[in-house]
Batch of 2 targets.
Target 1
Amino acid sequence: MFKNYVKIAFRNIVRHKGYSFINIFGLAVGLTVCILILLWVQDEYNRDRYHSNLDNIYRVNIRYDQSGQMRNHRATPPALGPALKDEFSEIKNFARYHPRRSSILTKYKDRLTKENFGFADPSLFEIFDIAFITGDYKTAFSSPNSVVVTQETAERYFGLENPIGEVLTVNNLYDLTVTGIIENIPDNSLLNEDFITQFATLTEKEGDKFLEDWNSFGYQTFVLLNDAAVIADINKRLYSYLPEHNRDSDIFLYLQPFGNIHLYGLNGDGSITQIYIFSTIAIFVLLIACMNFMNLSTARSIKRAKEIGLRKVVGASRNNIGMQFLGESVIFSFLALFFAVALTELLLPIFNNLSGKQLHLALLDNNLFLALGGLALITGLLSGIYPALFLSSFKPARVLKGIGKSGSPIFRKVMVTAQFVLSIILIVCTILVSNQLDFMRNKKLGFDKENIVLIPMNKTLGEKFDAFKNSLLEDPNVESVTATSNKLGVQMGGSADAFEWEGNYDSTKMLMFMVSVDYDFDKTFDIALLDGRFFSKEIISDTSGIILNETAINMMGIEDPIGKTGPFNTTIIGVMKDINYHPLNLKIEPLALFVIPEWYEFMAIKIVSEEIPTTLANIENVYNNFVSAFPYEYSFLDDEFDSLYRSEERLGVIFSYFAILGIMISCLGLFGLATYSAEQRTKEIGIRKVLGATIPGIINLLSKEFMLLVGLSNLIAWPIAYFAMNRWLQDFAYRVNIEWSVFFVAGVGTLIIAFLTIFFKATGAARSNPIEALKYE
């Protein structure tokens, strides 16, 4: 029986090539989208989930109240880990961790490169599954200034030679001895550093008391709990832990499962939101394809009415008929899967470029193989369930008399409407994502980010900073030069708990973000002051001065702040206008500017917009004259700023591609239905033309019903899209308004596309010779 079903299915595919193509191609595109997103979701979900202790590994995060809004952060003080281990019996082990990506200068022999470093306690290797190829995790950090490297890094530096015992010079400050080689860490891992050295090495820069510091929040703390630990109880005790150990701190601790860090982030900024969005898109596109199949199958049912009637006359039951058509839809689905796999392989390089990943389709992977088979089976059943129920309900006596039916017109209208509802939602979302990206790129930040060249600071540059600065200023194309500890608009400043200032008698507390700047910072970045003045090199006392932003002043409640004692026992010399000094998904928070040269991380050079290549070449020449031990590198601040929103940009591009696919599948189905409608109304069209109907009148006859359905789809889709995008925009502290014009553009666009889809077939039917339609009557 199954063999006969397969034969019948393939005969129908060959006999009705046009409809078969529409069905198979539509399902193939829907399955391709699902496969691509399945691979993406699998990669996102599996990030950092390979550790054997995963269920018991947690990161200690902080939570604090900022302007009435609870904020979360991963930064903890270096003294926290050992204290938690001593005071919480549920904590088996801890490890402090501090990544420095593409910022550590490593020298081996005559080779200088910037590398990714991780500073960690030796216990990191006991908590996480980081396998050693050479060396032993128990002894790798037994001596000071030890470092372990990944296998790939070892080959890159040392080739096939044994690197154990080789010495690397770091930032021209200290030497590290290679004591182990570890397996390559997955690219998407949170711990993906090429070099891992001891956390205690940071004392070389931060000072001997660094490991006992409770006030510096800039390091990650991981803990390994025992199996009997109750997270709710630990979090309850942690809540008041910092206030007890850090005087009157208003910063509270809690544990976050390590496996959830990437998915859920800290402030709703994890990838789980994108997983939901992409999964919804996949479901939408697949549903559109399934609706196409159902629509065309039921619309063309009259063509198979006699077949069904005869099968029932010779004894076939309704279940037999239903299983036959359900089986045919599953066959269609698996044929579509074959083409979908080919399409996926073809499109994967493009999708990887869009998503920034390196996904591949491992068909020999049993889990993936079963997932694809299950996806095709579900698609076939979903597509075929209604046609199977509908077709199997035919009465043989009626269909053999020629009284057939071609499916419920209401059902087809609902399906067409639903298809376009989903497509229009995708189009509206695409437009709004693009608008939000444009808004973020063009929003006035309160400072000038254009034509700012950033050069990483190093020891030599720091020592010769003034001379280097003066030499650069001799170039008429260089407007200003300064230094800063942070990339404005890109990096958040360091933070500290500020609770002492003049007039703060009720011990109000706040988290203050701190940025160290040079004297020409305001000129370089065009910073506006509301009160007081900026730092001056001629006034020695300014080294203990502070400039606060207006948000800080408002929260502190200080009137006439100039000259008063500010946080950290400083003197307030100026109040600056608020600037967006960190990414736009975060609100402006209290900011303090200091002059602390030891904190400088970047030199910022403002150049004129003309002759940029010449100016850059001159900057490089000056750099090479002053600095020989460190390679020259630079970046533009506006480029760094744009790269922040690459994830949203990718989301927008992917949205647009999937929206195009969705509308294409919908129009493909619409074309099929229009073709069928024209076939069914051939005689009617012939009679109308004999009676004087014009070509525009015939086109209107065939298209108006479909156009009304597309119009109705817009009215249904608009409020759904508004609600969905309003929720998405809530993740941005600064966002666009949802304008009515967005819905108008989406509506007009879909109406035009739908009309053009129908127009081609309707024009052909309208131009047909009525004699051909009526000659057999």
Target 2
Amino acid sequence: MGMIRLTLFCLLALSVLTPARAQSLLKQADRQFDRLSYMSATDLYEQVLKTPAALTEGELRAVRAKLAYSYRQIRDTPNAEKAYRELLSAGDLPVEYADSYLYYAQALAANGKYREAQEAYETYNTLHKEDPRGSTFTKLYRDVSVLSKNAGSYKVSFLDVNTTKPEFSPIYYRNGLVFVSSGGGGGGMKRVFGWNNSPFLDLFYVPEVTALKDNAPASLGGTRSKKTAGPAKAGRTLGRDDYTARTANDSRTVGFYGGTNVTSGLGYYDTQTTESEVFSKTLNSKYHEGPATFSRDGSRVIFTRNNYNNGKYRQSSDGINKLKLYTATQTSGTWEDVTELPFNSNEYSTGHPALSKDDNLLYFASDMPGGFGGTDLYLSRWDGKKWGTPVNLGPEINTKGSEMFPYVDQKGNLYFSSDGHAGLGGLDLFFAQLTNTGDKAVAVQNLGEPINSSKDDFGLVTDGERKMGYFSSNRKNGGADDDLYRFTRDGPLYPCRELIVNVYDAQTKMPLNNTLIQIDNNEAGEKKQLTTDGDGNIRLCLDGESDFKFLATHTGYTDNQIGFSTKGLADDKPSRLDMPLTKPVWEVAGTGLPPVIRGRVFAQKTRHPLAGVNVVVTSDCDDSRQEITTGPDGTYQFNTQPGCNYTVEATKDNMGTTGSRLNKDGTGSPDIAMFAKGDVIKIDNIYYDLDKADIRSDAAAELDKVVELMQKYPTMKIEMRSHTDSRASAAYNKILSANRAKRAAAYLKAKGISAKRLKATGYGETLPVNKCKDGVDCTEEDYQQNRRTEIKILTVE
């Protein structure tokens, strides 16, 4: 009871800090911050902020910034978000605080607040245009669902080997799994890190992976486990080399494993159902060991350890103990001859080793000077006697953020974790195809949900097909609660292939809009039709492992058919398919019409050929007529005379057409599209000026064509469908589009078309023909495409 009273008295005294006491606490907090003891610093800075009046404006800003940064460093993202929000709400920050916008954005993303994170990244981008993270993360967070499109292919399960301590960075060894932890199988006393009394990390071993049991499948937000709530022990952030000074890159160091604040009340206890054991007493020392990698035959290990070997503890020139890579060989069941790799240094950290299948390539992470950002990935080659000089994997892999935890599968593909490539928050897992030399990336891909989450996901191992594997994540409770997960893939590796089909004039190279593309999926027996946009493009998401046929048809051009297959593709990056269309020979040559012309009649909506259509061809020279009936393939042919123009009409029950015209110079087309109820007739769209409903002169010319069509089919009824772009509010755009439709209908009435045959509807911004939706910046030409009125056929006889 006396201790309780003393504690309460101390807390009361701290709540009424005097200015002198506040300054004393500030010095203590800054001392802990400079020593990188961020957990202690957060407690002290929080106390200092209880008396803000005791601080100058500059001191108050500095305290808030250091508090926020300290929470960031111990991965307490909820408190980091709160602290950065308070810092930024106080007004614009001096230039030296510009990174606070980045850290705020990262905290928001780690807490799943992607829309707010997007805005914070946009602000950061205006201040640091040279940092691509501002633009790449902003783009992703406009539609983060792109990282969920493959979620159905994977099942992620929580392993019961997990304890209240961290377990992470699994690696295959023999028939089992080696991983990193601070306990869970070893006996006796462990040396603790003196600053905050927490255990160091060791390598542990599950001899048979078949003994690993899993719990219920884990979702993005985590999963239920057998762990029950309990008090968390105070201690340092496990797995972080936070006693390492900032390097020339001003970076996090290799020792960062995804841990965070273990004193935030999120601890829990669990009973292991799968026992693990200390991997090797000869490898595990009183300091950090792990992660590790093993040679193909299991006789050699390369592992991460503090700069401590053969009883010697070494420091950098500024008194910091770094991480190094060591190797050992197994003799008679014992790991012996522990030696450090030649490219280690007392001045920077190296760690997270990964060997290639043939043991000749070693990938690892380091914050050595000369990198792109925090920690970069490097490659060293075995020359038969020693490991060679490391080579940076370059900007395709490495970013201004941190890349770490590499792993190379049986096919030579690289997996790694990064917070610099756009992801869901914290560390995300990425996949990269490498060139045959192993030092360049062909493509980098975010693995998406459910393997990735808004928390830290890292340390993945898997087979060459990514059918099954293991990884570590702190998604369950955040903080230092790093746990092991198993994943299995039941669906296709790449279920969705983004494809852009581009149609253009083969001679002029100009895009052909309003081109109908018929898509046949041979595997599924499905067909659909799409129309190209103003750039001659359609955008698709195709099923994996399927064959497709694309048929492009455009009035005045010869059809083009091209095949495309998603089988055997090694990534899910967007593809492009070009489909040039050519005009008939006489149009290209400009030498006039040939003596015999063959045309085709088809349904406008489906592009299917129409048989039994009565086609009438009339000569402008002598008004002579030729009547032909289309065959099963929808084709017909007629004779021509030099120097004559021809008009082509077609009739079929319950269908209509705008007809066609062939000129004596060879221009025009004999192909005829016929419309039916529900179709939008193929005339040029009627456009409007921004925020206007007035009928422009170019629109009036198009409406006159509608008048002619209505006179040609006196019982036909139509709907005038008006649309707006996405600027202004949805409610306002609804009213504006309705006014535009009414103006267009009024124009037709003035030309003698009965009001009973006209319907006017405004759709506002709900049906854009391109990407220009809310939140998307577009050119004026793109916006113009959406300010339009379309003509839909309601009835035709």
